[in-house]
Amino acid sequence: MEVEIRGNYDDTNRAFLQAFMGRGQLSIVESKKILASIFSVQSGQAVAPEEVTKEDLDSYISAAADALSPLDYEIRSTFHQQTKERVYAVVNSISDPLTQMATTRTSEEMFYIKRLLDAMFETYNTKRKEVMAVRDMQALEKKVTKGSGRQDGEDNSQLAVDKGLTIEQAEKLLATLVSEKWLEKSKENFYRLSPRALMELRGWLLEAYNEETDDPDDWQRIKFCEACKEIVTVGQRCSNLECNVRLHTICQTAFWNSRPSKTCPKCDTAWDGKRYVGQMVITTTDEYLQGRRRSGGAKNSRAAAGDEEDEEEEEHQNGTSRTNGRNGAAENGERNGGGRRNSRRESPEEEEDEEDDEDDE
Ligand SMILES: [Zn+2]
Ligand SMILES: [Zn+2]
Questions:
Q1: Would you tell me which CATH number, out of the four given (3.40.50.2020, 1.10.1900.20, 3.90.1150.220, 1.10.357.10), belongs to the domain 11-96?
Q2: Which has fewest Cβ within 10 Å: 50, 53, 235, 242?
Q3: Cα–Cα dist 116/133, whole Å
Q4: Residues whose CB is under 5 A from ligand 1 (ion)?
């Protein structure tokens, strides 16, 4: 583009930064769309997103970063764990992100967010099942919405106000968190942290959920990709339950190409690529697939083109065939089939506990 921005920060930069802040995080495609409309207005003629060059984008990102730095914000980027797209986010570089967020939320909302994170990273992130995501109905369960849940003793100042949220308030907050790009909601209705949240909360998550230890082999709740070293909340795991090695699915091709054999780099266990981290821990189980079929999930199966769904059609991650356990599955189907969208009173962890034993090998 012929747009001159070097050296002077002008209205186009301000417009870009404003759009960026308003969206919370931006992919390259989104950034180029925004810049194209800014350039169109500025030049008085239509500029297509494809005409926006990488240099344009880089210069606007770096000008935005310069403008933000006196305010203790910086721009970071990471790869989206599913789409592999580069994603930019404005990240507070100094203060505790939850404190930061607290300026725009009520304390009840903050407590709810903390309990939601606990659900993601503790309740549904166990040694055997690293789901690291919360189904829509789980996010509205009493133990998450009700106040006086577990609080780490440090924040005494806030203890008095934890009254909890109503279902309606929680639903509204969840929608806001999705629109602000803190959370993503998958088409299977799981909430997980967005790239923005993972970047912003990285240090906080490690502090809150990982143990301090001198032994790098100790199991930890938050683990990193062996290839790119970013947090893995969606990807693959070593089938050795004691082993901490994780890999993004998007990182695996390059990683295995660089290795002599497809075995875990730490414990040497064969890597079959069917041990998951993320919602696929649930969505690849017999129970889930049966339930989905029984619920006549036209609306679900239609979405099969997506990133994770294509792998769902493959073999069950425990190696058990999908046709076994008809009876058990039918029973589970009673409980969890028939519209996972509607029934928020189910307690899905029961169904998950049942398969725990299968993971033992
Ligand atoms: Zn990775
Ligand atoms: Zn291993």
A1: 3.90.1150.220
A2: 50
A3: 9
A4: 225, 227-228, 248, 251
- Characterize the bridge pairing of strands 73-79 and 134-135: unpaired
The residue type found at 71 is L
In the block, residue with structure tokens 């909340």: 233
pLDDT category at 293 given cuts 50, 70, 90 is: confident
Q: Where are the beta strands (DSSP E) in 47-165?
A: 73-79, 86-92, 134-135
Question: How far away, in angstroms, is 84 Cα from ligand 2 center?
Answer: 24
Over the stretch 264-275, which tens digit does the pLDDT of each residue have?
A: 999 999 999 999
Question: Which helix (H) or strand (E) is 253 found in, with range?
Answer: helix 249-257
CA of 287 to the centre of ligand 1 (A): 29
**245 CA to middle of ligand 1, Å?**
11
- Span(s) in the chain for CATH 3.90.1150.220: 11-96
Residues with CB under 5 A from ligand 2 (ion): 238, 240, 243, 245, 264, 266-267, 269
pTM (whole model) above 0.85: no
Select the CATH number that applies to the domain covering 105-361 from these four: 3.30.465.10, 3.30.70.670, 1.10.10.10, 3.40.309.10. Answer: 1.10.10.10
